[in-house]
Amino acid sequence: MAKGSIIELHRNSGNWNKIVGDIVKLERKIFPKHESLATLFDQELRKKNSGLLYLDLDGEVVGYAMYSWPSSLSALITKLAVKEEWRRQGHGEALLKAAIEKCRTRKVSRILLHVDPTRTPALTLYTKQGFQVDTLVEAYYSSDRNAYRMYLDFDSN
Ligand SMILES: CC(C)(COP(=O)(O)OP(=O)(O)OC[C@H]1O[C@@H](n2cnc3c(N)ncnc32)[C@H](O)[C@@H]1OP(=O)(O)O)[C@@H](O)C(=O)NCCC(=O)NCCS
């Protein structure tokens, strides 16, 4: 696979506007409106307890993962996506692993996420990385779209 670099976007990054702009474009393309953070991305990212990793391949943003740690108990993976033409090359898994490591440094004991059960690639990837289904949340995304809530627990030692 083309390797690229996974980079953390910082609030004071000089390229903030460009990177957020590129991600908003991807977000609009990949997710339906009711699941998209496109209009809120900048706002979400400026919150204190949130972070964003993106994959840069020769200057092109081809994937991203967003996470937050609202309390000391658990963190959330709030977004994960890879540009369509770059899928099935290990990038999604690399981004997810990097986001898990970022959450681990926050000393939380659990990571939570939500995924539409019909999103087989994502569901398979999360399961591969050790996430387990906790519960089905009905009408999570919209009146006719449910979500699995999944969790990954860290060892206490
Ligand atoms: C989910 C997503 C990020 C995966 O990205 P990716 O770069 O294609 O994934 P990878 O190449 O790293 O695949 C890693 C693992 O994911 C699973 N996977 C990925 N694509 C899959 C597919 N089409 N079908 C089944 N499993 C799949 C496999 O377990 C794979 O491991 P393997 O290669 O050893 O079989 C990507 O499909 C995507 O952006 N989807 C649309 C957005 C989305 O659904 N995001 C999640 C919202 S909760």
From TrEMBL:
GO terms for molecular function: acyltransferase activity, transferring groups other than amino-acyl groups. Pfam families: Acetyltransf_1. InterPro entries: Acyl_CoA_acyltransferase (IPR016181), GNAT_dom (IPR000182). Keywords: Transferase. PROSITE patterns: GNAT. The lineage of its organism: Eukaryota, Viridiplantae, Streptophyta, Embryophyta, Tracheophyta. Residues 7-155 form the N-acetyltransferase domain. This is Putative ribosomal-protein-alanine acetyltransferase isoform X2. It comes from Senna tora.
